[in-house]
Amino acid sequence: MNALMILDVHTAWAWFVVVSNGLAGIWSLTAHRWPALRSRALWWFTAASQATVLVQVILGVIMLNKYKLQAPKFHMFYGFVGLIAITILYSYRVQLKHKLYLLYGFGGIFVMGLGIRAMLVAAIKSP
Which parts pass through the membrane (predicted)? Predict the structure, then answer.
């Protein structure tokens, strides 16, 4: 893989991160309201969507370390905050067991927002 190819994968994967975490958040919020939507598939989808963030960060780290590409200001910040947010969500699952669907619903939407913000920062061209 060359630098441009991994940059293209990183850019395309960002959409997957945003959409999957948004869908997981919406599904969890609707499952809070309608218990019929609560299933094991929700948790598998949530875990998979959160794992996309880790893959995205790893791709970014490879671009920085192996190919010496420069990241826009605050772009890396949003990626690492996404990982930290997922860790915090996981750590609160026992304490907020009675509000678990709300926790992961709003958490998924938050992670989606971080992904959107990272994409916007990357889209802005610095002079």
Answer: 12-30, 42-64, 76-94, 101-124
- Whole-angstrom Cα distance, residue 22 to residue 57? 18
Q: DSSP letter at 124?
A: S
Tokens at 75, concatenated:
């772009």
Which whole-number Å values give the CA distances from 38 to 14, 29, 89, 100, 103, in the listed order?
Answer: 27, 10, 18, 11, 14
Q: How remote is the C-alpha of 3 from its chain's centroid?
A: 23
| Rounded CA separation 112/103 (Å) | 14
Amino acid, single-letter form, for residue 117: R
CA 102/CA 6 separation, integer angstroms: 35
C-alpha 101: how far from its chain's center? Answer: 17
Structure tokens that stand for 122 in this block: 């990357």
Q: What's the burial of 98, exposed, middle or buried (CB within 10 Å: 0-12/13-18/19+)?
A: exposed
9-29: per-residue pLDDT in tens?
A: 999 999 999 999 999 999 999
